[in-house]
Amino acid sequence: MKRDSRPFRVLIVDDEREYREVLRLILAEEGYLAETAASGFEALSKLKMVPFDLVLTDLMMAGMDGVELLKNIKKSQRRVDVIIITGYGTIENAVEAMKKGAYSYFIKGNDPVDLMKEINEIRNGKGAEHEQKSGQKSEFDLAQFVLETKNKQFKRVLDIAGRAAESNVNILILGETGVGKDVLAQFIHEHSGRARMRFVPVNCQAYAEGLLESELFGHEKGAFTGALERRKGRFEAAHGGTLFLDEVGDIPLTTQVKLLRVIENKKVERIGSNELIPVDFRLISATSKDLAHEILAGRFREDVFYRISTITMEIPPLRSRKEDLPALIDFFFQKSQKEHGKEIRKIDAGVKEFLLSYDYPGNIRELKNIIERSVVLSQRGEILCTDLPEMEERKGDGGRNQAIKLKEMRRHVETNYIKQVLGFCNHNITESARILGISRRQLFNKITEYKIR
Ligand SMILES: Nc1ncnc2c1ncn2[C@@H]1O[C@H](COP(=O)(O)OP(=O)(O)OP(=O)(O)O)[C@@H](O)[C@H]1O
């Protein structure tokens, strides 16, 4: 939903006349239609008459405070976003207010440029996105996923995820690429007490080392070349909600040290600043790497591992839960037809057989892609074997499998024959090599390779 087709109306509520007037002037200069109210009561009566988009309200006010006002607004006008304005001493209350549906909070005395950015964000539509999060309707639509399973191991994972969601503990999700770690992280967030707040994913693999730190911790203007503006990091963005560190195994060691500090102290320091900003987040991490191996190789810190993995769960690869394939295949066919406006009336028996027996090294992502592509490429409502290049590749694979078998056969025959000759020659290597028609060195190599004793 774009809101910039009509004037964006902001209501400033503060019992301090000077402050609300200054804010009104700044907002007017930025092109907003700003009005003021001196109390929560006045604000509510103005809200009844004028359709405001955003309310900026002071937290501490006589009569009705900012949180009370927020509750009243969310009761009757859920679409109106609210930013809480607060002093340093009352940040905790502002955080509580965010849990009750405030969009964010702004500390009096901070640079108003930050506040303007936040307001712009709301105007540009992110507010609408957030509104979904803070309202009854969830952005993560369970109907978009198959979270029922016939597989014992995955059933257990879902059960643990559901129970762990209610707590605040750090969760580590393991599993091969494409098994649905991201989906499970969102599932946990949506079942937690933080569901109304943000779910902030960070793909740690996607950033160069320095950039990852700035992404996570934020930076001050001029903190490094290219830091043209002050920027909040993802820890701050996840305040009150859930931070999801995807591919956590790819975080460089130096960043891991800093990460550990934030996880332990729940305070973040933007790059180029000494100020410690309190952050309240729930941490979910995921990786497709073998972290035990990474720790042994000196690429992952053991202390970080223990911090992030109070509860660990591993999603099984799709090839080991083939009993779920029929439901998943059906789901992705339905979804793709709807999304691409196509109707599939006939699917080749060979295609079905292939989809049910293929091993999916790319897991659910691969299954989803194969089906989506076949639906997009389908003609006259039919899906043919030729629409699935994976089937052709597999035919080629048949040849490779045969080659492996031949190699095994050769190994078997050679091992037995070498053993016989060695016995016949009383384990004399020179004599055995002569009979076999190979050099001493070649025979040594074969004895080692075939582990002949
Ligand atoms: N249970 C599910 N139901 C429907 N779709 C799913 C399910 N699990 C995963 N998917 C889909 O499969 C794709 C891969 O899922 P996801 O990104 O969660 O995997 P991942 O394990 O996090 O992968 P990576 O390790 O590459 O980050 C996504 O498009 C996702 O929507």
From TrEMBL:
<dbReference type="InterPro" id="IPR001789">
    <property type="entry name" value="Sig_transdc_resp-reg_receiver"/>
</dbReference>
<dbReference type="InterPro" id="IPR027417">
    <property type="entry name" value="P-loop_NTPase"/>
</dbReference>
<dbReference type="Pfam" id="PF25601">
    <property type="entry name" value="AAA_lid_14"/>
</dbReference>
<dbReference type="GO" id="GO:0000160">
    <property type="term" value="P:phosphorelay signal transduction system"/>
</dbReference>
<comment type="function">
    <text>May play the central regulatory role in sporulation. It may be an element of the effector pathway responsible for the activation of sporulation genes in response to nutritional stress. Spo0A may act in concert with spo0H (a sigma factor) to control the expression of some genes that are critical to the sporulation process.</text>
</comment>
<dbReference type="InterPro" id="IPR011006">
    <property type="entry name" value="CheY-like_superfamily"/>
</dbReference>
<keyword id="KW-0597">Phosphoprotein</keyword>
<keyword id="KW-0805">Transcription regulation</keyword>
<dbReference type="GO" id="GO:0006355">
    <property type="term" value="P:regulation of DNA-templated transcription"/>
</dbReference>
<dbReference type="InterPro" id="IPR025943">
    <property type="entry name" value="Sigma_54_int_dom_ATP-bd_2"/>
</dbReference>
<protein>
    <recommendedName>
        <fullName>Stage 0 sporulation protein A homolog</fullName>
    </recommendedName>
</protein>
<dbReference type="InterPro" id="IPR002197">
    <property type="entry name" value="HTH_Fis"/>
</dbReference>
<keyword id="KW-0547">Nucleotide-binding</keyword>
<dbReference type="GO" id="GO:0043565">
    <property type="term" value="F:sequence-specific DNA binding"/>
</dbReference>
<dbReference type="InterPro" id="IPR058031">
    <property type="entry name" value="AAA_lid_NorR"/>
</dbReference>
<dbReference type="InterPro" id="IPR025944">
    <property type="entry name" value="Sigma_54_int_dom_CS"/>
</dbReference>
<keyword id="KW-0804">Transcription</keyword>
<dbReference type="Pfam" id="PF00072">
    <property type="entry name" value="Response_reg"/>
</dbReference>
<dbReference type="GO" id="GO:0005524">
    <property type="term" value="F:ATP binding"/>
</dbReference>
<feature type="modified residue" description="4-aspartylphosphate">
    <location>
        <position position="58"/>
    </location>
</feature>
<dbReference type="InterPro" id="IPR025662">
    <property type="entry name" value="Sigma_54_int_dom_ATP-bd_1"/>
</dbReference>
<feature type="domain" description="Response regulatory">
    <location>
        <begin position="9"/>
        <end position="123"/>
    </location>
</feature>
<dbReference type="Pfam" id="PF02954">
    <property type="entry name" value="HTH_8"/>
</dbReference>
<dbReference type="InterPro" id="IPR003593">
    <property type="entry name" value="AAA+_ATPase"/>
</dbReference>
<keyword id="KW-0238">DNA-binding</keyword>
<feature type="domain" description="Sigma-54 factor interaction">
    <location>
        <begin position="147"/>
        <end position="376"/>
    </location>
</feature>
<dbReference type="Pfam" id="PF00158">
    <property type="entry name" value="Sigma54_activat"/>
</dbReference>
<dbReference type="InterPro" id="IPR002078">
    <property type="entry name" value="Sigma_54_int"/>
</dbReference>
<dbReference type="InterPro" id="IPR009057">
    <property type="entry name" value="Homeodomain-like_sf"/>
</dbReference>
<keyword id="KW-0067">ATP-binding</keyword>
